[in-house]
Specification:
9-stranded mixed β-sheet, alpha+beta
Length: 271
Amino acid sequence: MFCVYKPPNITSAQCVARIKNILRSGLGVKKLKVGHGGTLDKYAEGVLVIGVGKSCKLLQQYIDGDKEYKVQAQLGISTTSHDRDGAVLAIRNPALITKHMIQDILPRYSGRIMQTPPRYSALKRNGQRYSDLARAGKINDWDFPQPREVTVYALHQLIVGTEEYEAFICDTGNTNNNDENAIVTDVNGFHSDILQSFEHGTIPCKTMELHVACSKGFYIRSLIHAIGQDLECGAYVTRLQRVKANSFTLDSAIQEKDWNFHTFNQFLKAS
């Protein structure tokens, strides 16, 4: 058993199929059982636990285990899938949203909570995936999977660095450096009062980044959508990264450039 870094824009099943083909070719066998320890959305990336042969029987403990994520979200837009894959439902101006407003909402989603999974999910109704039914227009807008109890062990905002902050400042469209009251777009030339306002959470936010530690069955997309609704501006996931699955972390994940038989075989021998 080992873990890989699943890149975005590929499904977990496609990821497993690629690894399976590499191992079958290297081992010279026609049949080989390969599975994963918990689905990541197509546009998500990060830790994906891989089981090979008899170790596939152990994958359920990773599916049922706790996980940690980093998520980036765009404020002001809500979509049908709660990420960039869905159709836009509404657009609202998020200019008045501040870091403190987001922080005040987060405790509502800590501990044991009831969460409604998104319609665009692998959950099934009458043997068919909700995502397939939704894309085929076979379910109503108000038809969601049943709410279920999940646990959030930790939930907090991540510190935004100067690069992200610069991008946010540029996004305001105020780039007139001849105006002494203008917001400076140069990272090395921030006005001290602007930085102070940012530290105190009073600069309007258009994006947010969170770290989430949660139980199995938790949907990050649903969390972001719910926070957007609470902020009355909407929000959707722009980047989702799984950073931990049980004992597997980013440090132990095999990067896509190293997906070859030699690397996989080394990890299999060591496990």
